[in-house]
Every structure is written in C-alpha cells, then in structure tokens.
Design goal:
Strand order of the largest sheet: 3-2-1-4-5-6-7
Largest sheet: 7 strands, parallel
Mean pLDDT: 94
Low-confidence stretches: none
Oligomer: single chain
Enzyme class: oxidoreductase
CATH class: Alpha Beta
Number of domains: 1
Family: Belongs to the short-chain dehydrogenases/reductases (SDR) family.
GO molecular function, one term: gluconate 5-dehydrogenase activity
CATH superfamily: NAD(P)-binding Rossmann-like Domain
Organism: Ruminiclostridium cellobioparum subsp. termitidis CT1112
Helix content: 40-55%
EC number: 1.1.1.69
Number of helices: 8
CATH topology: Rossmann fold
Shape: globular
C-alpha cells in the first residue's frame, strides 16, 4: 500500500511554491521521492525554499521565477522545467490570492486581480503542462481551491466576494478538465483548505483574536489547520493511490463546512 504513495521518479511542479502551503507541499513531494520545480514571483524566497528542501531530502529542486498571470512568463517557466527534467508528472496549481471586500466596496482592479491569479493562473499553467501529459498518457493535476468556494462568511474580516467567486470558478474548471482529459490518463481534482496559517493569513486573520475566537467556536475541530495537515490530501491526489478519482473536490476544514 505504501508504494501507491511513492513518487520516486516523478517530477512535480508547484506554483506559489515560495511560502506557505506551496512550500509545504513541495517538501512533501520531495519526501515522497519526487524531484520538484517550484514556481513563484519572488526569487529570493524560492531559492531559500529550494535550499531547505534539497538539504532535508537530497532531491533535486528547480526554482523558477514565474508570474502565473503572464502567459509568456508561464510558457518560459514550463519550458525551463521540461528542459531540466524532461517531463512533468504532477502539477499542483497552488498560486492564489485573497482580496478582502464585498462587491459594494471592491475596485474593478481588485476583482480582476483575484480572477487573474486564482483562475487565469490555473488556465495558463495547465495550458502549457497538459500537452506533454497527454503525449505521455499520464498526469496528476491538483488545483487548490478553498472551502470558501462553497461556504461564505458574514464576519466582516472574512468577507471576500472575489475570493468566493474565483475559487468557485476553480471547481468548474476542475470538472471540465477532468472530464476532458481522463481518456489521456490524466486525473484532475481540487482541494478546499479552510484556514491555515500562511504568509497570506498570518498578517490578517491570525492577528484578529475576535475572528479566531469566532472561527474556533464554529469549527468542530475547534482550531485552524496546522502546518502539514494538507499534505496527506495533496499526496493522495498526486499519487497512484487516487488513480480512479476524477473531478472531485476534497475539503480539508476540520468539519467547518458540515455545521
């Protein structure tokens, strides 16, 4: 059974790999035996993550600067990965942003920025990864959505209408890709994390004691997710253990969405 989760010989690409859940997932992939390419805009942070993973696991890590909202940038980044490793087995579309505000207070620019990163980014990276997966007859694509694709919140600090909308769009894109590419040996699934501490949340949500108290009171687990608690789901959907799982959305939220 353990061999089903073994990624030795596989190559994984992680967008948004310079911090938070992306960096955690990249380390998990390497610990499972994969070589990893981490993509993000901040080169210094990428290089630091690369060094940490290589030291901890001995696996090969490629750090590539990439803005997932820019097509030529994405095209060049994927070409660099293929030039280094020759193929891509796993794609974790993790890059994302959360812009606070409701439709009555957001600017058009803020709305567009959410969709450019959270939806267009997945489209562009997948556009340049999928063709070689189809040629090889194998691929595992995991899109990071959010529990907020299916659950909204009326607490002021958590109102993010563009985030709700863009992450819901990720689910639609996941289903469409899954249905189209299953015949090529490619599985496409999505994960919906709830609140995890990351660079994106530590300076906002985790600094609000009032919000955390409300979140913990409403969540059956009574707490946010801990570092590494998303990795099991990521590895499952990225490995042959999920070979017949297609177009699904797995929520990792401590039970928050069921109450």
């Amino acid at each position: 059974m353990a061999n089903m989760f073994n990624l030795t010989g596989k190559v994984a690409v992680v967008t948004g790999g310079s911090s938070g859940l992306g960096a955690d997932a990249a380390l998990a992939y390497a610990n499972a035996g994969a070589d990893v390419a981490i993509l993000a805009r901040r080169v210094e942070k990428l290089n630091a993550v690369k060094a940490d993973i290589e030291k901890a696991t001995g696996r090969k890590v490629l750090a590539v600067r990439c803005d997932v909202t820019k097509e030529e940038n994405v095209k060049s980044a994927i070409e660099a990965v293929l030039g280094e490793f020759g193929h891509i087995d796993i794609l974790l579309n993790n890059a994302g942003i959360a812009v606070r505000g409701g439709v009555d207070s957001m600017s058009v620019e803020e709305w567009d920025r959410s969709f450019d990163t959270n939806v267009k980014g997945i489209f562009l990276v997948s556009k340049y990864v999928v063709p070689q997966m189809k040629e090889r007859g194998y691929g595992k694509i995991v899109n990071i959505a959010s529990v907020n694709a299916i659950v909204a919140d009326k607490v002021d600090v958590f109102i993010r209408h563009s985030y709700n909308s863009s992450k819901s769009a990720v689910l639609g894109l996941t289903k469409g890709m899954a249905a189209s590419y299953a015949r090529y040996g490619i599985t496409v699934n999505a994960i919906g994390p709830a609140l995890f501490e990351s660079e994106m949340t530590s300076s906002t949500l985790f600094k609000s004691e009032d919000f955390l108290n409300k979140y913990n009171a409403l969540n059956p687990a009574g707490r946010p997710g801990n570092k590494g608690e998303l990795n099991g789901t990521v590895l499952y959907l990225s490995s042959d253990a999920s070979s017949y799982v297609q177009g699904q959305f797995i929520v990792v939220d401590g039970g928050g969405s069921i109450v």
